[in-house]
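Example S7 (structure tokens).
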């Protein structure tokens, strides 16, 4: 196999094992910074990918992640947080990781070569037309990831490839290619480091922009979160209060009436007749809070917060 960028020796690696601990850590930290910078060049392709994913999810499709090894852990972290952070239904997210559930206990290397396992995983997840699959591989040649993207594409799904090597098989197979051209690792081939950092940042950006397209973010607030613990219930009340200008006590009461739905609670504060009426307004506005507020006769561009001391809340 020809040497790839992710397998090359870093310029600061010579004599690494006999350097002072502070010098070693300095090199590692600098390499992480350089890896993070590589994501900026991928912004146009990340933007295209987010639009595609949002279209699939809004149309009722699924979002699948497929990867092996460290890339699988990056995918897992992003996928598992989508329901809690942005309220995306868990049954709309599929996680395909080489080695299956066993990978969560022993991240063995062998399963990443098992292309047939990838085919089975894609089929079992029911990936097809209307769905989207993101496949990740630092090298861009991992058989599991490459086969997953090949099969998903053949079955009619939109495909997004994320890799750290230019002109790799994964990027060639993908409908949308996201190249994260990170420098060689300080520990050659240890892609859990720089390449993994870049992948995590790119996935954070990708899923966040997708959520914005879906109307799950308003003024930097995660207004579609699932408030299923004390911290998140408190965060939900603070969001309702901050956006609507309601007191914390009133915000908590509105959340109770809305069944814990932040956007619905805000619309109740804005004058919606009932939680059901608020939900219907959100359906008409594609789950986007700003146009829903406008539908109630408010101008959310001008009022910050929505209701100040001089603006009484009135029922329509």
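Recovered sequence:
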């Amino acid at each position: 196999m020809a040497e790839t960028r992710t397998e090359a020796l870093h310029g600061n690696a010579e004599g690494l094992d006999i350097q002072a601990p502070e010098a070693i850590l300095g090199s590692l930290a600098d390499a992480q910074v350089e890896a993070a910078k590589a994501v900026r060049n991928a912004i146009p392709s990340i933007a295209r990918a987010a639009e595609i994913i949002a279209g699939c999810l809004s149309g009722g499709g699924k979002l699948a992640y497929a990867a092996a090894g460290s890339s699988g852990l990056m995918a897992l972290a992003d996928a598992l947080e989508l329901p809690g952070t942005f309220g995306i239904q868990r049954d709309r997210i599929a996680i395909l990781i080489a080695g299956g559930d066993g990978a969560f206990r022993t991240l063995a290397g062998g399963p990443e070569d098992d292309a047939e396992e990838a085919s089975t995983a894609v089929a079992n997840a029911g990936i097809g037309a209307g769905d989207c699959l993101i496949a990740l591989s630092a090298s861009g040649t991992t058989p599991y990831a490459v086969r997953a993207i090949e099969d998903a594409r053949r079955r009619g799904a939109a495909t997004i490839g994320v890799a750290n090597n230019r002109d790799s098989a994964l990027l060639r197979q993908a409908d949308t290619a996201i190249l994260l051209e990170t420098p060689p690792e300080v520990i050659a081939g240890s892609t859990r480091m720089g390449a993994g950092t870049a992948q995590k940042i790119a996935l954070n950006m990708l899923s966040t922009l997708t959520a914005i397209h879906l109307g799950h973010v308003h003024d930097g607030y995660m207004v579609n979160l699932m408030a299923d613990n004390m911290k998140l219930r408190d965060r939900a009340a603070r969001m309702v209060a901050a956006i609507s200008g309601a007191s914390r006590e009133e915000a908590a009461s509105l959340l109770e009436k809305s069944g814990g739905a932040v956007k619905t609670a805000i619309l109740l504060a804005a004058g919606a007749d009932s939680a059901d009426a608020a939900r219907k307004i959100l359906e008409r506005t594609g789950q986007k809070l700003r146009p829903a507020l406008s539908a109630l006769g408010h101008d959310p561009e001008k009022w910050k917060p929505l209701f100040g001391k001089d603006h009484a809340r009135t029922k329509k």
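Notes on this example. Residues 194-213 form the longest helix (20 residues).
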